[in-house]
Amino acid sequence: MPKVAIAGAGLVGALNACFFAQKGWDVEVYEFRPDIRQMEHVPGRSINLALSFRGKSALEAVGLKDYIVNQGVELSARLIHDIDGETLHRQPYGQPGEHIVSINRRHLNEVMITEAEKFGNHKFNGVKFFFQHKVIKVDSRKGILLVNRIKEGDQVEVEADLILACDGAHSAVRRSLMTFPLFQFSQEYIAHGYVELNILPKNDKFALEPNVFHLWPRGDFTLIALANIDKTFTVTIFAPFELFEKEMSTEQKVVSFFKCNFPDAFELLGERHIVETFNRVRPLPLVSIKCEPHAFHGKVLLMGDAAHAMVPFYGQGMNAGFEDCLVLSELLDKFNDNIPTTLDYYSKTRCKDAHAINDLAMYNYNELKDLVNKTLYKIRKTFDLS
Ligand code: FAD
């Protein structure tokens, strides 16, 4: 059986491991972090994510859709909160019965790693996860990954028939391919950053309606809240870095900012939690990345955020990454596991799709920013950014 080496055991790397384990390939996954199933606290991005059709289809192909969906919270509409703290506007996502699902990133990642290992146990050579192994670079001609074994303090070369770069937006594999002839690459950091907060259950119940995507659009800044299965809500504020610096830089300022702009959310978040969060964390940046090709020398493929990191305003980054896994798996079947032919075809067809969804995400970012100014909502002007 052919061997696939996967850089990164994040969402896309772990799902790829499931796909290839199912095919019976020899699978090795090299992950920089320790095993998240044993970590107390996992630092990093968004706590929960919206899983939609693309992502569900890919999970279905490895038999995980129902299990994952059952562990999430269905969201059937957007619920827009006005600045008066009382008026709500409901916008259904689709027809009755249609919904997206709010799922916990860590749980999803853990389930996929465990499932990949299980596939491996009863089939063929199996899946080996190597945690605390940092990929340094790739030799795409030879199909070799150079990996730093963090605990051992040495480096090893890993040879494989296929190398999948699923090592995220700041991919080390992609970085080492920068001089590949005609490799196109663009990266854009947007003016907005984000901070995550938390709403706790109230009397052991959800403090807000759970089955909707809560949105507090306020022109250039927005608050969102997605329910978790443990009855908490993950709340995210997206705002320009300039605004974080001007309006949320002291305890007093951040409290009055939330009180004034999100009065109903402020009550549920609580002053202490807001202050404590803003003292502890800095706003995180958001980047959009496009590149072409995604395949190199018939041996290496960029996937997920390594190929197409996008701003999160369309909720499609993970979903598109999951779709990458499904598309690759189907193409390998179509081309009888001929890796160079598959990679060539994948790159030629998938780059266009990746660029399109990336553009849609950026379009939605610009749309969301203007939405409020253009339509119903009158913003209390608490600051002047002119
Ligand atoms: P990552 O999740 O970044 O995983 C990369 C993995 O590679 C990590 O485990 C990392 O430790 C590892 N790694 C990195 N470097 C190395 C190295 N050198 N060697 C070995 N391992 C390495 N998407 C949605 O579909 N729906 C949403 O609702 C949504 N909401 C979002 C909200 C926010 C605020 C943000 C920032 C993103 C959101 N996304 C959403 C996008 C989604 O998070 C990403 O698209 C998704 O995480 C990409 O998965 P990935 O596996 O490609 O990369």
UniProtKB/TrEMBL annotation:
From the UniProt record, list the reaction(s) this protein catalyses.
Answer: L-kynurenine + NADPH + O2 + H(+) = 3-hydroxy-L-kynurenine + NADP(+) + H2O
Keyword field contains Nucleotide-binding: no
Enzyme Commission (EC) number: 1.14.13.9
Instruction: Name its co-factor(s).
Output: FAD
Q: Name one GO molecular function term.
A: FAD binding
Keywords in UniProt for this one?
Answer: FAD, Flavoprotein, Membrane, Mitochondrion, Monooxygenase, NADP, Oxidoreductase, Pyridine nucleotide biosynthesis, Transmembrane, Transmembrane helix
Q: How does it sit in the membrane?
A: Multi-pass membrane protein
**Coiled coil feature spans:** none
Per the record, the domain of life is: Eukaryota
Question: Domain FAD-binding spans what residues?
Answer: 3-357
- Its biological purpose: Catalyzes the hydroxylation of L-kynurenine (L-Kyn) to form 3-hydroxy-L-kynurenine (L-3OHKyn). Required for synthesis of quinolinic acid.
- Report the sequence similarity comment from the record: Belongs to the aromatic-ring hydroxylase family. KMO subfamily.
The protein's name in its UniProt record: Kynurenine 3-monooxygenase
Organism for this UniProt entry: Acrobeloides nanus
